[in-house]
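Quick one: sequence plus flavin mononucleotide SMILES, need structure tokens.
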Amino acid sequence: MKIGNLELAGRTVLAPLAGITNLPFRLLVKECGCALVCSEMVSAKGIVYNSEKTLTLLDSKATEKPLSVQIFGSCPDSMGEAASFIQEQGKADLIDINFGCSVKKVVKTGAGAALMKDFENARKVITAVRNAIRLPLTIKIRSGWDSSGCQAFRIAEMAQECGVDGIVLHPRTAGQGFKGKSDWSLIARLKEKISIPVIGNGDIQSAEQGLLMMEETGCDAVMVGRAALKNPFIFSQIEALLENRQCCKVSNDDVFGIMKRLVSYYSEYYDDQHASRMLRGRLAWFVKGLPGASGFRKQLSIINSCSEAIKLIQDFSASLAKQDYSALS
Ligand SMILES: Cc1cc2nc3c(=O)[nH]c(=O)nc-3n(C[C@H](O)[C@H](O)[C@H](O)COP(=O)(O)O)c2cc1C
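Reply:
Sure thing.
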């Protein structure tokens, strides 16, 4: 699987998730077999204005490579300048432009999904970024702004003409947000219309569904977002199914191991208090459905240090092991 001149080792991609796909989470997902990880969306204006908070979003590490950095904005000049900065600083292996964010704050500036209803500015933004960088370039689009028509096809064809190397399609309209079901048939139709790689995205909840999306749509790779929060192993599981290997079951020990890894990555990149605050939410995802999860979550919500997080995980793991043992005896 190649996007421009970037060769990927597999066909799975982590979706950009604002506030979530930071460096620690990406490192974790990479270890779980993801072929291409993606940053949170980064404001082009923030980069151009040298905002410290924005620039920290560009922190990366060699072991997570290849890395796609997603930028958002509506001003062609700032988008080009930001993309060029990212390339010159060696921060990314691929740049992605956000055409999908439907959050009011973003859309009202003409960025994100609003670009889908402004064809001429969309072309200017893509052209500015394309002319600014040699790195492979993708755009991540929705099916359209609203259900009046499929802006996705027109935008994707234009993007291909402008030299974009791949299209990610999340087939919901901006108006839908995350409601309803993503319409995978649009991914199949897009695949027929363009020759550059198509990455399908939307509602993959299991490895089997990842495989199904590839089979049903013919897409070149699949992008997974929310399902990876509970099961980061989904990437290696999808890769296994694609190679006709058995999809490994995830044990409780695997889950607790990965939780501890996440704590260690957070403690490496953030100060203890900040890390533990963020981990209160992050660690809760992994235990969904396990017996005793609600008690664990309650205790998690008041941790103030990474060492408290590790102790909680160990205690929870031991209590489950005891239950397993009593079930056997
Ligand atoms: C919390 C959250 C944050 C998101 N942030 C971004 C973002 O920064 N950029 C983007 O293009 N899409 C973003 N998305 C959309 C996802 O990348 C993805 O398209 C969507 O969740 C559908 O995929 P999924 O069903 O696998 O989660 C976000 C979604 C969620 C739930």
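The chain has two domains: 2-242, 252-328. The first strand starts at residue 2 and ends at 3.
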